[in-house]
Amino acid sequence: MIKKDKKKKIIDKFKTHKEDTGSSEVQVAVLTERIKELTEHLKVNKKDNHSRRGLLQMVAKRKKLLKDIQNNSEERFSKITKSLKLKAGKKK
Q1: Mean pLDDT of 51-57
Q2: Phi, psi of 3, deg, nearest 5
Q3: Count of structural domains within the chain
């Protein structure tokens, strides 16, 4: 679980305007942080299949959001993938 102050820092870094808390970029950044934390949890708890399923759902959601960003603006897509150090898929 991401702490409030850490989540606020992520939102402040990726927001597109003053009141932004739910844009695709913010959602991808928050999901990425949650994925990192859950990955660390699963390294210790290898048999926690419920959490593994949640992780797979988060990865799928992040993938959909990134695809949407890529379809709308290649510039925004490259910016967020570089800042989060994600692999950039090729546009089909």
Answers
A1: 98
A2: -75, 155
A3: 1
